[in-house]
Design goal:
By secondary structure, this protein is of the alpha+beta class. The protein has 2 domains: about 220 residues, Jelly Rolls (Sandwich), CATH 2.60.120; about 100 residues, Homeodomain-like (Arc Repressor Mutant, subunit A). Helix content is about 50%, strand content about 15%. The chain has 12 helices and 8 strands. The strands form 2 sheets. Strands 1-7-2-5-8 form a 5-stranded antiparallel beta sheet.
Amino acid sequence: MFRDMLPVLENNMMSNSGAIPVVFDGIEHILEKNTPVSEGSKHTTHELLYLREGQIEFIIENKKLTLNKGNTLIIRPHMMHKLKITSPQADMLILYFGFARDPKLINDMIKENQKTKEFQDKISPKIPGSGPSVPLPVHFAQTSLESFLEFAEDGKAEMNKDPYIMISGSSKKDISQIVERIIEEMNSNMYSKELMVKIMTVELMITLARELRREWEESLRVKNGKAKELVLVAKKYIDDNFERGITVADAASYVFLSQGYFTRAFRDEIGISPMGYLMKIRIEKACELLEDQSIKISGVAAQAGFSSPQRFNVAFRKQMGMTPMEYRKAKNF
């Protein structure tokens, strides 16, 4: 079943982003403070590092940062970087991943790489920090992480100009668990492990997409106050389109925010939830339409943006304390 489903998912990603995600290598390192490490390296793929224990100092394109236990770092392709162990011991997981435009060619290369890795592990230990233990493609789809991740959230990604991305939000634990599972699967001899790694790679990309979207939304509120501006744009969208049967999800999508974040930001700025506001202006419009005796109740419901007279009756009674017909009679329209 999964073998039938995966091509459909890959085709969807290819049509939206022009590439599919591929994990080329997964490595576990437990390093002592005095362990010799590489003087620096850069790769054609993204490098994701999750620090299970300890502390590491990184210099990435002359930018210095410190990783502590639980941190996840993504280094972009072609960025020179080197690491230094600053705790007695550091335990880390590393994934090398990218985005391929020719899945078949990449799949063949990964199978060949697995043989290379098994042979390499037997003849000599790998120098920590020097990169993957298998050959990486020289000519590779240089799709940015943000651009690719649009497929998962159906939004507009803002390209981060930094040479790396720090994952610091609530999804850190989920990301680390997926990375653990991918590396464990890659190092196993389980049935259909290549298929399982593909599935988990897609899961990793979706989880990264959600976390990067959450961090971007939070930056709107904290860094530059754009949340207020976007809420006002969405409010006008609701004002102009409420008769068309739009939803809160439609309004959130209009300003490229997740529904959860949009709901919180809207309530903070307007003092009412977006659903509450949408119902309020629909009921106000309905009260106006009820003054015209020639319009049937079903017509009032449709013109006020309700999907059915039944939903209109429930919403009207909840807000006004009476049915639309009772309201019309009480006002002697």
